[in-house]
Design goal:
mainly alpha, 5 helices, elongated
């Protein structure tokens, strides 16, 4: 789509947008370009803009769901591990163990 937006020739822009849709039917920006460049009347343009909006909403919803899943897995997997080493280091360093000794015990290289 970057090529389509940079293209100055309207026919080439339309062709590039259609190729983008062929590669990815959920390419909202291609529908926007077609609404602006190819629509013969306001009704046709409106249909293409609505399709672009529908696709963008769907993609946004999927993105939010994926982000939620990633955050959930991060909390389940990494937070307990982080807390384990964090509290272990507080206990050890709080009992007079030097940073160098703590790093050697846990094989941490600065």
């Amino acid at each position: 789509m970057q090529t389509a937006w940079r293209e100055r020739n309207p026919e080439a822009r339309i062709k590039a947008a259609k190729e983008a849709i062929a590669l990815n039917p959920e390419c909202a920006t291609a529908y926007i370009l077609l609404a602006e460049e190819e629509a013969s009347d306001i009704t046709e343009a409106e249909l293409k803009f609505k399709e672009a909006y529908r696709i963008a909403e769907t993609n946004h919803r999927r993105s939010q769901q994926l982000q939620h899943q990633v955050q959930h897995h991060f909390q389940i997997i990494y937070c307990p591990l982080f807390h384990h080493y964090y509290f272990k280091s507080i206990l050890e360093f709080g009992h007079g163990i030097s940073t160098q000794e703590g790093h050697q015990r846990h094989d941490i290289h600065s």
